[in-house]
TrEMBL record:
Cytoplasm found in the keyword field: no
Species per Swiss-Prot/TrEMBL record: Streptomyces exfoliatus
Assigned keywords, A-Z: Signal
Coiled-coil annotated residue ranges, if any: none
Entry keyword annotation includes Acyltransferase: no
Region described as Disordered: spans on this chain: 152-171, 266-307
Protein name: Uncharacterized protein
Entry superkingdom: Bacteria
PROSITE patterns linked: TAT
UniProt xrefs under Gene3D superfamilies: 2.160.20.160
Stretch forming the signal peptide: 1-35
Pfam families: HemolysinCabind (PF00353)
Amino acid sequence: MSATPPSRSRKRPRALRGPAAITALLAGAAAASLAGAPAEASAPRAVRVPMHQCWVNGVSAPPGDLVSGTKGDDHIFCDSDLENVTVWGGDGNDMIEVRGLVIDSAVMGGEGNDVIRAKHLVPQNASSMVRGNRGNDVIKVATVSGDGAARGAVVHGDDGDDKITTGSVTGAPGKFNRGGGIVTGNDGADTIKVGTIDFSGRVLGGSEADIIEAKALGPESGGLIQSGPGDDRISGPDGTLLIVGEHWGSVDAGVGKDTCTVKSVSTRTSISSCEVMPKAAPPAGKPSKPEGKPANPEGKPAHPAAR
């Protein structure tokens, strides 16, 4: 005899019909909704609309992944962080100001002589970027800190004679020397002034005669200044002496007659392609030789013919 009773011997429950069936259905749906609520709250939303507080010429920009200017001269102002957002000035001489962080976002001037001011570039899951595009642009960024190729932080001057000012530039590049923390003038005679270049941060002048000034280079773990073609000038702030090192650091002036007001303080650093270097100071206690000879040295009578 089987221990399990046959299924045929069980009585099936009567199926509910009419109003009773509708009531039971609604009660079951409510119970399922309450049971699944915590799981849905913890799960990430599949679609996220980027939120920001930006105004274009005084008009509030709608939420979304693009804040765009017009074909004329625009003033784009963002009073919040940008995350997964592209700000595009378009044509004209634009003023773009970002008071918050630039997180996985891009701020681009477009055509024209633009002024771009942004806070820290903070790549988290993608790259963060500021680009002047074509024109003689003025760019100011608080800090440029990248982390590999997938999370780079880059400031591009692009075409034109650009003026770029940033704080510290840090972050090692990834595969194929991509990403990391980079400031580059690209084409044009650019003026680039940055803070400390360290932890493999890079400052690249690009083509033509560039001026590159840095507060320090490689004090902790290395950095690079590479000016490229053109008669370039590399120095500390306002032409002062730039110390390279103590821990790695490299200056490569590239092609052209370049003036490098730099000094290495470590055997781990390198300085190359600098035709004009700062003059060495005379040894302590030894006076420097005066340039040229005096017409009549003191104590020596003049030649009779000269009387």
